[in-house]
Predict the 3D structure of the following.
Amino acid sequence: ATTGSDANPGTLALPFRTVQKAANLVVPGDSVIIRGGTYTISDVPEWTPVLEVTTSGTASAPITFQAYQQPDGRYDTVILDAQKIYLRAAWIHRCSHIILDGLTFANGKREGLMLGRGGTTSTDPLADPVGNITVRNCVAYNNAEPNTKYAGFEITGGSQFILIERCESYN
């Protein structure tokens, strides 16, 4: 929660402040339920995203990052905001079996969400492909500087078994 603290235990009653704190602790089968708000970062290198996931789930125990569902059934609005300072809002690489559900990726200088890293094939030394990633009910907006090749969602060379469903990308 944006009002939490990374010194907290990461429970519903005592949540972490940053999504990254949870990402650093996940193990297969975990679900990170994110309270509504705008999550940002500061005073870190330009390439640092608001959320970076490098831990894999498994086919039977994926790792999920999901917006919090209120008791009335509505989902909180969760915005990972790169503030046009950082290259991307979220970066998933060196891992597999990840689910992103109901998140918004905003204001990346390049991508809103990047899956994998560089390279054009899985044998390219710059490649860092991902696999078995599901992105659903997500939005990417106001990403990429004008006249660049970047976009709201980017899937890099060698990545496979990527499902993007019920998502939007604009501006």
